[in-house]
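Entry 12.
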Amino acid sequence: MTTHSPSVPEAHAPATPGRLRAEALTLGYGSRAIVEDLDLVVPPDSFTVIIGPNACGKSTLLRALAGLLKPTAGTVLLDGKAIAAYQPKAAARLLGLLPQTATAPDGITVAELVGRGRYAYQRPLRQWSRDDEQAVRGALAATGVAELAPRRVEELSGGQRQRVWIAMVLAQETPLILLDEPTTYLDIAHQIDVLNLLHDLNGQGRTIVAVLHDLNQAARYASHVVAMKDGRIVAAGRPADTVTADLVNEVFGLPNTVIPDPETGTPLVVPTDTRSTR
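Predicted 3D structure (tokens):
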């Protein structure tokens, strides 16, 4: 297979990206705080990638940005309005989310699951339309799963299912897309396909926010990097300014050297061999 993403249909690409920010955000589960007094601005038109070690609050923050987790304090603003003040369908026309784990109903086909991305556009007097059909077809083609449309989701491999879930989010046609570890379960070639696809969508006007574990993929694809540790933001900015040896050591506790990527010139993290020699 090729490592170039399929072309992304532009007919329904949003003209204006969503604006997303968090102010004095505190998040937690029960009495345990995960994120405290956090401020974040997602630059419009950006491909923002959130990096950080396990359990630092990345996924918790993403859930709050999507309006799925109510803050203990502070607020999330979507286009200048508290996200909690939106009606669900109104928010779903502005922001799409692919969570880290997603479960499809038993027996549902790929086409049916991707079609659920059109929920926000359904009304009592407006059911399935030609626009819905075009959006689903475009999303299936963009993610390379059109041939899987009649198959049941439960029959697919992990990598195929992940691409189908991404197609469902694309069918939602939102100016802002949030993804929690979208390359999970994918081999390296499909990881690059997905990241190329997200890069293309960003180039067409969508704002992308993704949690990634691979630092070098983050540095290569992101226009804006947010580094987290222990529920706080340690650094935010262009990859060239944020992905440094000192930052990687501070955030991940990993001795390393950062060199220019030979293909792109973006930062490339090379772990330092700290094993004692004999």
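Annotation: The longest strand covers residues 32-42. The CA atoms of residues 66 and 97 lie 7 Å apart.
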